[in-house]
Amino acid sequence: MSSAEQRSASTTLQIISIVTFTFALFLAIGAMLPVLPGFVSHGLGFDALVAGVVIGSQYMATLVMRPLAGRLADTHGPKQAVVYGLWAMGGGGLMLLLSTSLSGLTWLSVSLLLISRLAIGFAQALMGVGTASWGIARVGVENTAQVISWNGIVCYGAIALGAPLGVFMADHAGLWSLGVGTVLLAGLGLLLARSKPAVEIVQGARMAFHAVLGRVLPYGMCVALGSIGFGTIATFITLYYASLGWADPAWCLTVFSVTFAGARVAFSGMVNRFGGFPVAITCLLVESIGLLLLWLAPSPAVALVGAGLTGAGLSLVYPALGVEAVLRIPASSRSAALGAYALFFDLAMGVAGPLMGAIAAHSGYASIFLAAALMSAIGFVVCLALQRWTRRRHEELPLD
């Protein structure tokens, strides 16, 4: 192995050692996704809109928490942000355990579940920003793309494993086991974090969050429009399958996650080779096609193909546009940039639940995938326009 290959392998191992915390969180999240919508709708007797609000509240909590998470990571260090996130994750698991154990008291149960989702959302904000910033600080800003990509790979890889695992645990042990499992994963994460060295806090002036947000806004808009598709699948695929009398909806989440992670591993070099905009534009087009297949699916097999295309399409949108966005922010405010950029993903996930729940209540579950496909197509158009605007602006800059 050459010295360059050794350095590359060492960098990858350092990144993986940090994003392990992300894996633990999303393994728990993945286990909940195919189970909790049915628990709210069928177990507790609430309608699709309530199920969407409860499940989507996690992402709204993450959305609200991102600015604080970025500021905390910049000023106190990304390791501390991850530790706080693990404590929030453990609290969310405990509330889930209580909620599923008190299902006979429907309003108390759904209230406890809502608290659990909020706590998990706080954990996602803190750990998402913390692990990304921690990883970049460990391996250097020149490896930002690799850190963002690996963070996403373990996210969706964990969901791919967690979805069928959650169904198995719920079927064989009961819903309470998901809460216990989440608490145990958080505890293991806290033990592992103790042995990991912190990184030096970057000194310098901190940009106001609204200024950071303004710089990443154009890129984040495209990410939000594309991410609605995942929010729709994550929240409603179980109820969509049930409305058609199909079995095993967890496999849709698994296929989505496998193609997402696989595409990131196989094509992550495309961003550096072709540029962020061409990659994002192509991916949004593929995602739109996948969501249209889900809308028209006559069988579970076609639905799986649609989920796979959606996952593959969405895979590189975030890193392709995120690298350019983050590199336009000073290092002293890097965590704030990561948090601001991630806000748009959180916004999409938070909006997807209540918005698609309302559409499903009015027009049926199939229609939500048509709506998500249209939003992804709008993202395609916006990204194309942004590419042309950026090129024109670059051409108009005076030469030195």
TrEMBL record:
Domain Major facilitator superfamily (MFS) profile: 182-400
Pfam family for this entry, one: MFS_1
Location in the cell: Cell inner membrane; Cell membrane
Main localization (coarse): membrane
Transmembrane stretches, start-end: 12-36, 48-69, 81-102, 114-136, 148-169, 175-195, 216-242, 248-267, 274-296, 302-326, 338-359, 365-386
Membrane topology annotation: Multi-pass membrane protein
Keywords, ordered alphabetically: Cell inner membrane, Cell membrane, Membrane, Transmembrane, Transmembrane helix, Transport
Matches recorded under PROSITE patterns: MFS (PS50850)
Entries under HAMAP family matching the protein: MFS_YhhS
Family recorded in the similarity comment: Belongs to the major facilitator superfamily. YhhS family.
NCBIfam families for this protein: PRK05122.1
Name used for this protein in its record: Uncharacterized MFS-type transporter JFY56_20855
